[in-house]
Amino acid sequence: MATNEIITMAISVVLTVMGYFTKATMTRLEKVEEVAASTKIKLEILQNDHQNKNDHLEQKIEALTLMVKELSNDIKELNKRLR
Questions:
Q1: Torsion angle in degrees (nearest 10) through CA of 36, 39, 45, 47
Q2: How many whole angstroms separate alpha carbon 38 and alpha carbon 44?
């Protein structure tokens, strides 16, 4: 074998190894991107669900606050009638 053939073969082996690891890295990157997109969608769903539940709770708390005020006023009025 001539020196040129050895150098060519060595370069070919190096490029083949680099190609293999590049392909493996790209495959992993694609999987990570898929998981990231899925996670982003799930996070958005959770954020919307949390916001909806929070809004619903705020409405309930406001309604309860109004009811407590009305009850307080009714109790005050009943106390006045009893005196």
A1: -90
A2: 10
DSSP for the chain reads --HHHHHHHHHHHHHHHHHHHHHHHHHHHHHHHHHHHHHHHHHHHHHHHHHHHHHHHHHHHHHHHHHHHHHHHHHHHHHHHH-
Distance CA 61, CA 20 (A): 61
0.90 cut: is pTM over it? Answer: no
- Angstrom distance (rounded) from CA 77 to CA 41: 54
Q: Does 23 have pLDDT greater than 70?
A: yes
